[in-house]
Structures are given as structure tokens and as C-alpha cells.
Amino acid sequence: MDIAKQTKLHSNNIINNCMISTCELNELRKSNIYCDANILLDDGGSIPIHRIILSNATEFFYKLFMSPLNAEQQRNYHIRHIRTHIMETVIDFAYTLDCDINETNLWELLTTADYFCYSLLIDRCTEFIRSILNLENAIHLLLMTRKWLYKHEIERSIREYILRNFIEIFQSNDVVLNLSVEDLVDILKDDALNTKTEEPIWELCLRWIEFDEKNRPQYVPQLLACIRLGLMNKAYFEQRVLNNKYVRLCPEAEPIIHTAYRFVSDMDQVDWHRIRDNDLSMLVPRLPNDLLFALGGWFNGTACDLFETYDIRADRWLEFYYKDPLGPRAYLSTSVIGYNIYCIGGFSGNVYHNRCSVFNLETKDWTEIAPMHYRRCYVSVCTLNGKVYAMGGHDGHNRLTTTEVYCPETNQWTLLSNMEKRRSDADACELDGKIYIIGGFDGIGCLNCCEVYNPETNEWSNLPEMTSARSGLKCVAYKGKIFAIGGYNGITRMSSCEAYDPNIFYWSPISDMLCPRSNFGIEVIDDAIYVVGGFDGLTTINKVEYYRDENKIWVSAVGLNHNRSAHALAKVTNCSNIEDFVFDSRAVSSLPQQDS
Questions:
Q1: Parallel, antiparallel or unpaired: strands 380-384 and 365-369
Q2: Contact 53, 21 (CB under 8 A)
Q3: Cα separation of 252 and 496, whole Å?
Q4: Distance between CA atoms of 420 and 401, rounded to whole angstroms?
Q5: Cβ distance 173 to 136 under 8 Å?
Q6: Would you say 242 and 224 are in contact if contact means Cβ atoms under 8 Å apart?
Q7: d(Cα 547, Cα 513) in Å, to the nearest integer?
Q8: Among 93, 256, 297, 515, which has the minimal tally of Cβ within 10 Å of its Cβ?
Q9: How far is CA 304 from each of CA 311, 320, 515, rounded to the nearest angstrom?
Q10: What is the pLDDT along the chain (596 residues), one digit of tens a residue?
Q11: Could you say which DSSP state residue 151 is in?
Q12: Superfamily designation of domain 3-157
């Protein structure tokens, strides 16, 4: 081992075995006790330090103090172009791993941390930037971070936020209009740009051009090349793109517009084998911000382990073959924490499960976790504060009132207070820090009663009853209300829906679904309620539809690849490897299918 490594190791051992705390060491430093050097600054400041502490913090100081150019007895080290109070903050952090970062000192502190190659302090600044990111400052923060060498993680975090919220950023302020064409193009061409349609992107481009109408019309071809023009609505394309004055006055835009118009006019007549690679970009859907996963369920008269994902931008379901080690299950429920999908309970066709498993999207591995205290088929599951709550269900003999909570950190289930009512085939969701469980079956009849759980008091309370009894229903929190969808009332499968407003303690009807269904999947994605599959009273179905509050009607979407019911639906947001669960990088082979 060379002398430098030996010295570094020795300094680590001294600090790790020190009998006093880092805060106490910092107090000694401030009192100039046992200090063996001073940091001198251009503004006249002088800060006493212990060289071994700073050497352990960053390679910059380690090499500075170990340099043969500096005699061992030398005590004064001049650091240029850094102000005393910023240097004091850096040194405080070196001793205590804590410092005051605010919007006033952030940029100067980050520049200094970058100069010292101080990765821990850069990480702390990155955390602070993430905490203050909002629609108004995101673009400014992105441009500021480009000054630093160690900018990659910071820039990535800000860029992800901008791509996820770009439409809102554009609509809420004019900062986007000051972007250079290079920066604007870089954002607009990204597959991860979160937009439901391409029309708002073109509207932004028009605003950006009009902001400097003298100089910016020349960039029309570059902007058009960033937009998925072939996915636009035909009427919109004709009115707002084809006949736009900037487009008509730009000869270089003509071939782009001509090709795009063929696509939007009649996609069925497109010869996919003769499309040029540079034309494909206007047909490739963006990557979705959220992914839906449909897992397990009842298929062809038996429990299954089907695994499908829904790509909302391409409007397609894709089947994968990641097999749960617990085998086929129906009447299970799921919970999502980060990139982990927890599959809870269920029925194999023979076994009522208390066993649970988790699928990690990043590793694509299944892992069995601790079993519940009770076997639970038809279980209701909810996520709250990073924990998984399991409520009610059927153990093979009885409908249950019991509830329990799983902590991923300890891999343990803990029993909670029992519900007021036995119920299986209910559903649960979280709203404003409380868990609502709705409807179900008590072993005698379908239920219209509901309860709410307060985790702070570990107590259940009754809520006003729904207007209809519903077993095999699904519920979801949406727009500040609890929506109860479909189900079975003891006579028929239902298409009716109702919503509970916790502010007025009242249930009110909403529009009926297009298809009656029970034991289906439900999630909110793209600001809409999606219902997936289920049983319509005659057969399992693959039908999918969605409801948006602004138009208050249900609309059909593309169906599952397989008819199934009693499956679990899970939504994962901002998956780091989302490309692995959508169409093969938007391959050409998938594009002809985009006719819905």
C-alpha cells in the first residue's frame, strides 16, 4: 500500500475511533483548540482547521496538505476566489455533515463544492434543489446547473421534473419563451416529454416564435422535426399547422408538412415498408409518465399468473413473462411503494393465501416477503406513508374484520384494530392521510356500508352508506372524492357509479360505465379513472374504459390481451427503466397497429 493510501486510511481510523462527537470537534475548531492549520481567504478571513478532518472530507484538501510543496510544519493555506462565510459553511459541513443551505447561498456553495470536488456537499445541494423545484423555477435551475463539472445528477433530476411537468410549466409562466432554440429542441424531442397529445407542443412553439417574431421563424423546420406530427388530429393539423403563416412562408418546412399530412389524413394507406427513418420520428409515441400493470386474476376458468403492462401513449397492452414464484393467483390485491409492486393474498384455485410477494421493476425479480397473520382472498389493500395495509377478505372459512400493516424496512406485518364490519370483496383507497374501505360482502349479503381508518388513533369509524350495495366493486380517490365503481348488488353486475365527498359527507351519482363489471382493476392515470377487465355477469372481459371529470363520461380504450377478472392493477410512476415495459423502443413493427 502506498504512503498516500496509508495516510488516508489512518485518518479515517482516527476519526472513526474518536471519543468526541463531530459537533464537539467543530466547537474545538471554532475555539482554535488543537488546530494545526489555517485557511486564508481573499477577503481577509482566516479559519482555523484540523487538517486531518478536511483531508478526510475531500481529495482536494488531502492532496493540498500532503503536497511536497508544503512543508509539514506549514500552517497557512491560501484558497483563492472564495468568500469567508462560504468557506466557513463548507468547513462546518466537513466536520458535522450538516449546514444551512438556502436559496441565497445555494449557487455559491455549489460552485465551491464543485471546485473542491466535494461529492457529499454536492449531493446535499442536489437534495435542496429537488426540495425547491417548482413550475416557476425549474427552467432557471436547469440553466444554472450547467455551470458545474459535477452537474450530471442535478441536471438529470431537474430535467426529469421539467419533462414530467412541461405543459404546466409552459402554461403557468413565460420563462420557456426565453429558452434558446437549442434548449427548446432538446426538451421537445425527448421521448419522455409528458404530453397526452402533440397539439399543446405546437402551440408552445407558436408562442415561442411570436415572442421574437423577427428572428425565430427561421427555426420552424427544427421545431416541426421535434413534434410527432403524424399523431395529431387531422382537423387540428389542417387548421393550425398546415395553414399556419410561419409554415407557409418556410420552404424548408414543406416536405415535413407534406409527409405528416399523408399520415394524419389516412394512416391505413401508409406503406410502412417504405417509410424513411427520418419520417418515423413523427409517428413514434412519447413514453408514458405512468405505467399500469395487470397481474394475475381469473382466466379461462382458473387462476393465472398473466403479467401485462399498459402504455397509455401508444394505447396498447403488452404481455411479459415474469412469473410470480407463488404461482397463479386470483382475487389478490396490490400495493406500490417506489419501484416495488407488492402482491398480497389471493386464491390459487386450491389455497387461500396469506403469502405475499414483491416484484421490483428495476431488477425484474420477484421476492417472497413475510406472510400475513391471516389468509386473505378478496382482500382490500392500500398504501399509506410507505406501508401496506391489508383489510378483511376471506380465509377459506370466514369473512374477516381483521386488518394488518406491513413495514418494508422490517419485513413484518403488525395487527391493527378490527373493522366494524366483516367484509370481503370490498375495496380500499387513501385520501388525505386516511384509509377508506367501501362495500363488500359479509357472508350473508352485499354491503353498502363504508368505514374510514385513522392511522394516528388506530380507530375505524363508520361513514354514510352508499346509495347501492356493492360487492366486487372498486374504489379510487379522485379530485378530492372517493369514487365507488361498479360491482355486484346481489342481483346483477352494475355499471352505476357514485362519489363520496368527505367535506359534506354525501354520496352522489356519476355517469354509468359503458359496460357493467365486478372484480375488475382500477387506477387513476393521466388524470382519468381507468377500469380494466372484470366479470360482466356472463363472462370475463378484456374491456377497458376511462372517466375524466371535465367531460363526465366514460370512453372506451384498447382492451387487455386476455379476458380476465379478479386480477390486480398497479400504477408505477416515473419508472427509471420504463423503456423495458413499453413497446420495444417504439419499434417500427409496432407502429402499424396504431389505428385506435
A1: unpaired
A2: no
A3: 54
A4: 7
A5: yes
A6: no
A7: 8
A8: 515
A9: 22, 13, 23
A10: 443 444 444 445 444 555 567 778 888 998 999 999 999 999 999 999 999 999 999 999 998 888 766 554 578 899 999 999 999 999 999 999 999 999 999 989 988 998 999 999 989 998 999 999 999 999 988 888 776 655 667 888 899 899 999 999 988 888 899 999 999 999 999 999 999 899 999 999 999 999 999 999 999 999 999 999 999 999 999 999 999 999 999 999 999 999 899 888 876 555 555 566 566 778 888 999 999 999 999 999 999 999 999 999 988 999 999 999 999 999 999 999 999 999 999 999 999 999 999 999 999 999 999 999 999 999 999 999 999 999 999 999 999 999 999 999 999 999 999 999 999 999 999 999 999 999 999 999 999 999 999 999 999 999 999 999 999 999 999 999 999 999 999 999 999 999 999 999 999 999 999 999 999 999 999 999 999 999 999 999 999 999 999 999 999 999 999 999 999 999 999 888 988 998 764 444 444 443 33
A11: -
A12: Potassium Channel Kv1.1; Chain A (3.30.710.10)
CATH of region 290-592: 2.120.10.80
Q: Report the CATH fold assignment for 179-280.
A: 1.25.40
Q: What letter represents residue 587's amino acid?
A: A
Q: Pinpoint the residues of the chain covered by CATH 2.120.10.80.
A: 290-592
For residue 243, list its beta bridge partners.
Answer: none
Give dist(CA 399, CA 394) in Å, integer: 5
- Taking residue 593's Cβ as centre, other Cβ atoms within 10 Å add up to 12
Q: How far apart are CA 405 and CA 381, in angstroms?
A: 10
Q: Where in the chain is the domain with CATH 3.30.710.10?
A: 3-157
Give the residues across from 39 on adjacent strands: 47, 77
